[in-house]
## 1
Amino acid sequence: MHQLTIRNRLTKEKILKSILMKKTTLFLIAFAFYGMVNAQDTNFTFNHIALSVKDLDKSATFYKEILGLQEITNKTKMEGIRWFSLGEGKELHLVSIVKEPVTINKAVHFALTTSSFNSFAKILQERYIIYSDWPGIINKITTRADGIQQIYFQDPDGYWIEVNSVGNRH
């Protein structure tokens, strides 16, 4: 029985890592506004996103355990900052050294796509992480007009994260 539990946990971890490492493209495009920036011939590419967090360890644990992100070297060497890989050279920086409050609403979110959408929603349920559809109905999934499914949940600091099924189309 214990081996089955370990095997199930390892399978969940593989799913989480697969979700995030293979399917960050939509997230990166949304934050870098790639089409708009490219049209300006500036040759920008997305590098990282930084989030201001209250409890660095709690947030780092969330991004490692729930989203399966791998922690990488904080090249600033400054205390109060931790870096995580989003794959393909893209990064998430968690910063706890700025103390001003951050105002957050659901329109300010980042989106990840996965080909294992239903499995990921089940993992959130098993971990008692509340998710909702766009209007905010708990444990409900938004289905867009084009058939893409979306769920929204928050990290420990209240940042909104969307996970969608765009990855099922690839």
Note: The longest strand covers residues 81-87.
## 2
Amino acid sequence: MSDTKINLNLNSETMKKINFLLITFFFLGIVQAQEKYSFTFNHIALSVKSLDESATFYKDILQLQEITNKTKMEGIRWFSFGEGKELHLISFLKEPVIINKAVHIALTTSSFDAFVKTLETKKIPYSDWPGIPNKVNMRADGIKQIFFQDPNGYWIEVNSVGNRH
């Protein structure tokens, strides 16, 4: 075999063009490698003090169906909102949770007035957004809403179906 040497006499202008092309291909590769993501809501997890008390609240008050805890870990219970949306209650984490009304779960019901009566019958306090007890908030779009708390202090909004625009 013979050693063949290739002599490339590239001027600086040609080198600039080659470098530009290499950099362009590199960046195009990065851009093409970036994927676009889409998401759907899966679950919300809440840290709770008493797992049984919280589970009873979500079963009795919101009538959520308990489903299989697929983690199989002790101290966790799962509930279904339907349509693949879930609530996970977790009792073994002991870090304090800071709660305010702006951080809340919002649910819509076609039986708003009946649900408010259920809260009143079970003596669960509710309020409008500003916090006036036993008052229903009426949004500008005609949706009624109330706010109340679960046994751990988490805020829950329940609103009516109403006329959505």
Note: The CA atoms of residues 89 and 133 lie 27 Å apart.
